[in-house]
Specification:
The chain is globular. Strands 1, 3, 4, 5, 6, 7, 8, 10, 11, 12, 13, 14 and 15 form a 13-stranded antiparallel sheet that branches. The protein has four helices and 15 strands. The longest helix is centred in the middle third of the chain and has 10 residues. By secondary structure, it is mainly beta. Helix content is about 10%, strand content about 50%. The chain has a domain of about 160 residues. Keywords: Signal. It comes from Lacipirellula limnantheis. This is Secreted protein.
Length: about 300
Amino acid sequence: MMFRPLVVALVVMTATPAFAQSTSAPASAASKPQLVRFRQTPVAVGDHVTQTLNVDLGLATKITQSGQTAHESTNRMRREQQRTIEVVEVAEGRVTKARASFVVSRRQTPESSQPEELLTQPIEGKKYVMIRDGDRIVVTDEAGHEPPEEESRLVAESLENVGKPNPFATLLVDRPLAIGQRVLVPRDVVQSLLGFEGPIGTVHKFELTLLRVEPPTAERRSPIGVFQAAIEVKPNDDSPLSISLTGEMSVETETCRLTEVNMVGPVQLSSIERTAGGIFQFSAGGELNLAIRSDYAKPLR
């Protein structure tokens, strides 16, 4: 049955900002809009980031067989991770080697042996080295030895976007934006942005609106552009998944690096399966909360 894998896939998320064409509402004739300019700073050896990820999804599930309720349940899926990534090698402006330490890495899913518990994953409290070779990621421990298969998979999943181009820069560099300007995002980037492992339906809308610019602080040298974000996904023949998320995304104006994502909204799943035993209808509904924070710094030398 395709229903359960889709539910579990909702808690496998990363942060991969990707944007394209921009539009804006007409400016007021009475005042000239303030323009915000974004720049990109090349990645360098020694750069490091501490990232915190929290995903929480509660679902009420119902299974109906030939018009009669066969099963009802409530599931909660959560993912918590805090990781630090340090750049070790750079080639042609991209990270090719990095060290990663996982202070926290825990997940709760209905597929686990303890579905009510937030279980510690085997990478928690450990350090690894990641090497990117094109689309391929090689993971070793600090001594250069290959870790167990599950650990390699979890590390590669968590670091999938390290060393890839920054799509924010493609959109924002050399493209001044006014407060209130709307940015239309290509629909095909939603899957990589949210990190879904399977089909997610048809993206009906994905747009950002520049709300404000926050000034730099003693801890953060770059101003921050804060965008209002809205994503709508509708079901199609490949996926019964429906998502409607709203919230905010924040980007450093001096680097185009994503610093924070906070989004929330309803999730719906519905599918029908015809078998020799009858017609089964699966439905589930709940609320998805997604929070990602990235704190960038350079080590003292």
